[in-house]
Amino acid sequence: MQTGESETILSADFVMTYGKDIVVVEEEAPGHFLDDPEELLKKEEKEDLEQPGEAGMEALRAKQVELLKGKKASKDIYAGNGERVITAGTVLSEEDIKRAQEAGPGVLVELSMHVDE
Description:
Layout: E1 2-3, E2 6-7, E3 15-18, E4 23-25, H1 37-50, H2 53-68, E5 72-73, E6 77-78, E7 84-86, H3 94-103, H4 105-113, E8 115-116
Antiparallel strand pairs: 1-2, 3-4, 5-8, 6-7
Helix pairs in contact: 2-3, 3-4
């Protein structure tokens, strides 16, 4: 992550959402910037031992629903197999977002980048 003239590292735990040219982070993120990638790896290894992976994934999915629910898809979103998952103009419900999550991380990223308030 580029901050001013220096480059820093931030755990994905502090990233709320991101787009092509912007990353939105939680308020406490500046206190958690790291200079060395090794620090992040050591921290993540320690956390992996403390927290089960599925609980973390469930929290991430819930946060994605919270951030996207009620927003409008600005274009059709397709799964890797060519199936349309979300139609342009859809005001996203929890079910729509869960369908995108199930279609894969690439689908959810594409959806996140193509929503309007």
